[in-house]
Structure formats: C-alpha cells, structure tokens
Amino acid sequence: MDLKPGRTLAPHEIAELLHEARARTLLLVGTLADEELRRQHDPLMSPIVWDLGHIAHFEEVWLLENLEGAGGSEGLRGMYDPFRNPRSVRDQLPLPGAVEVRKFLGGIRRRVLDSLHRVAAESRGTLLEESFVYRMVLQHEYQHDETILQTLQLKRGDPYVAPRAVEPPEAPSERPEPGTMVRFPGGTVDVGTDDRSQSYDNERPAHQVELAPFWIDAAPVTNGEFRAFVEDGGYTRPELWQEEGFRWIREEGIGSPKEWKEAGSGWTERFFDRIRPLDPERPVCHVCYWEADAYARWAGKRLPTEFEWEAAATWDPLAARRHLYPWGDGPATPERANVDALAFDTAPVWSYPSNVSPVGCYGMIGDVWEWTSSDFHGYPGYRTFPYPEYSEVFFGDEYKVLRGGSFATRTGAIRATFRNWDYPIRRQIFAGFRCARDEVEGV
Q1: What is the pTM of this model?
Q2: Which residue from 74, 179, 182, 327 has the least number of CB within 10 angstroms?
Q3: By three-state DSSP, how is residue 61 classified?
C-alpha cells in the first residue's frame, strides 16, 4: 500500500500500514535467538532488542502521549532515549528479552489501534494534518528496519539467514561503458519540498538554486571501477586524500572497502550470509565519505553537491520542471528500483531500466546511498517540526549528506528530496557514490 502523500489517511489505511510495517520488522528478526537480539554486534550499533524497544517507545510517545496524553512506561522511555543512552553504552542497559520486548511492541500497538478512530477523526493540530504524525511513526520504524539490517550485516558468528523474497535482476547485455557521464545543463532548478504530509523538516522548504553546468556519472561507481583504484595504490597515496581522511585510514589500517577481502584467487565480498567473488558490475558499497572523495580525485573528478545530485535525479531541463522521482511521479517500488530490503543485496548497475532520470542518470534511487560533498545544514527558511532532535541538533560541518536510499530502504522512507547524513568516517551504512566534474569550456 502506498503512503499517498498530500492527503489525510483513513483509520483503516493507517491500521493497514502500521500492520505491514510491524510484520516486516518481525520478519527481519524472526530467526534470531534471544542472545543474538541482546548482543551488541558492533560498537557502532545498538543491540537489536534496543531498536525494537525504541520503535515501541517512539510510537507510544507520539501516538498515545502526544495525541491523547496517555503515557505510562517512564522507565522504558528513559532506557530508549537515544540521546541519554548513546549506542556505545546500550549493551550495559537492563535490556529486555525477546518475549518481553514483543509484549511491549504488541501492547503499545493495541492501544494505538484502539485509539485510531477516536483520534484520527479529530482534524485539529499540525501533528494530525494530512496524517503527518502517523506517517512519521511509520517512517521511524522503516528507518530502524534499515538500521537493524546494518547491524545484521556486521554480525559475526553464525551467519544471518536472510528471508529473501526477491532476487535482483541481472544487468542487461547492452549498457553504457563504465565511467560514462551525462551532462546537466545548469540553470535555476527547484530543490527541497513543501510537502508536510510525510517529508521531514530538513527537506523543507522548497526553494530554487542556481547551478552551473556539470557532468555526472550515469551510474554509481562499481566494484570493478573501485578495485582499479585499490590496485593502483589508492589507499597509500596521500595526494589523493584530504589530510583528515588519510590520517584516519592510516590509524585504522584500512586498505579496501568494508567487507572486501583479498584472497589468492582475487577479491571477495561478504553480504549477509554470503561470501562471493567480487562482482565488478555491482555498485561499490560500505565505503565512507573519505574513500569516495579520494576515488573521485584519483579519477580526475569530484563528488557532486547534494543539489547537483537532486537536480540530476529529478529535473527535466527540456520541460523546465522536476519529477518526484527519477522515473516520474509514481512512487518507489521494487519493480522500479532496488529498494524495500527483501533482495538483501545490491543489483548490477543498469538492472532497472526504468530507474533513469531525465538527463540519463541510472539507479539514483535504491541499491546504495550516495555520498555528496555537502555538509548537513537547514535550508533557507528552515523551521523545526515537530522536534529538534531529528534534524536541527545535527546541523553543522561534522556530517556529510547522503542521497538516494539503498536496497535496504523501505519504499515509504525514500524520495528524491530525502536527506540522510552521517560522519565522513562511517562505513557500516549501505553507501556508495557517483562522481561529478565541472564542465570544461569547449568540451
């Protein structure tokens, strides 16, 4: 079912969407033993049982407490406060077991469903306008599904058996050459959005920016292309790196993307429960901003700004208008792009022929988040809504913006205006990139 932005959802639609979101969450963790749910698999990530409790806590706070003044589990709210309890200490909390956290999830959900007809019938307040608060809670659960999958990708020991429902298609036999770039003609373009039904405050308001002409990769950088950088000594050449990034990879002993290993027969890559020969056709994944930036410099290019990325994804220069998505205004679906998680893998680039923008960029939605060169700041006219801890507290030059979503992103949590952000050293994200370059006069 589509979230259908821009209108108020009926109570039965909200109930259906909430049910589908919870079914997916429980599917992802359904094969995990209690000990695996409670273990901190990596210092960067929460124990999965914390994510599950936080999902319930967030739903209680926004759909019961804020709408009806009905709270009730102060201790749990304290434990699931992400600012009071950063990820590095969450394994030290008195975390519940699987049975207890499922009871918490189910109990909050029953109370929410009981309140739907009573609360949704009231049109007062900006939280309820166009069903924003319900869409926000849904997106919160969708985003934690992707966070849980990041944790499961980091999990060691017995491999996680992914409940795959689809297999990514194979790349077509006829496709552009690696490194192909397309031209964006520049000009005044629309970015951001004024939608208040599902977009976050950091995506608003819609505004115009002036862009110079530029070239941008027609597809994300592939494993094969990035392997050439690695084998050319890219990780050992300080002239390719910003000083902070090169110092970090030296300190961490990093010489290839996360999950790559070099064996006698060549490179391998690990994805969930599979270790396979490195597929040169798939987009490179699990690289940080510093790695993307160094590769771009090695290739004689640069990373795009987030506005260049958004324009290349959505702006139609001939019609002088933008689309909601690269392919048009229809929503993201697994048929159009590699999204919604159940492939549990990236797909070879060019695999989704309809996932192409008006200027010819492929795969800008799905497969891998794409690093941009932009710091995370509010747009001109930004207004915090409904709470500063989602966006505002992260504004500054510490974080870089990523765009586009990954194969693990739920369809209801991705759009061309969606802004993700993280520290430039982070590699647990399902993140890759594509490059850009300035237009050279006469070329």
Answers
A1: 0.95
A2: 74
A3: helix
